[in-house]
Amino acid sequence: MKIGLALSGGGAKGIVHAGVIKAILERDITISKISGTSAGALIGALFAAGIQVEEMLHFFQKSNLFHPRKYAFNQAGFIKSSLFATQISAIIPQDTFESLSIPLSITATDVLRVKSVVFDSGPLYEPLLASAAFPGIFTPVTIEGNTYIDGGVMNNFPTDLLSDCDLIIGSYANKVGPLADKKLKRSYDIASRAFSINQFSKDSPKFDLCDVLIMPSHLQDYGLFSFKGLEKIFQMGYDSASKKLDASPHFKI
Questions:
Q1: How big is the CA angle at 6 (ends 126 and 193), to the nearest 5 degrees?
Q2: Could you give the dihedral angle defined by the CA atoms of residues 211, 134, 143 and 32, in that order, rounded to the nearest 10 degrees?
Q3: Which residue spans within 71-184 are E strands per DSSP?
Q4: Phi, psi at residue 78, to the nearest 5°?
Q5: What confidence score (pLDDT) does residue 66 get?
Q6: Helix, strand, or coil (residue 60)
Q7: Model-level pTM?
């Protein structure tokens, strides 16, 4: 049976996918194909490259995302996307999709041609950077003359890239639910909440494409770029996936 794994975007919350992968590995479930966007693209690449889940967590913890040296002055974003290529190459030494042990497809958004683009062959680093280039925060990435930003702008949960799989496991990091008024104290909170609601409404129709959908409820308590709760988020992914996989008729022993 060909099993696909779809990993959504989610910024720092994307580490939830590493917890999901830990639960999958513990149950000896073989993943045949991975699709991912933004943080999901990065975790998918790490998994496909054979990186241990503990190393994925450490990679996120040491990324030091908002160090001033990464700021991009007079550019279309606060942080230079290109600077992360060195960090990626340090953990994934070969810059090709073909070097990965599991086929990987990731999305990025062509901001000028207004289209979602899929990368699944050739150079790996730049498409990963493009897929995760959150608008206004990270600078766009130019690949072969085309300008790309975060894949989540148009395809945040790429279950559609796994249509050739017999079964799809989806890991989703952007669930939106009721929220107390006291959490919306600043204009940024309202803007972030509006973005999350819009994202969730666009992604919801894809949930039914998953045979097993893992979507921890309390992730909305964490921000896209909040790196202080990574271990808790990782554990949420593991706990939620363990319950879902054990309850699924597809994986009954």
A1: 85
A2: -20
A3: 104-110, 115-119, 141-143, 146-150, 167-171
A4: -85, -30
A5: 44
A6: helix
A7: 0.92
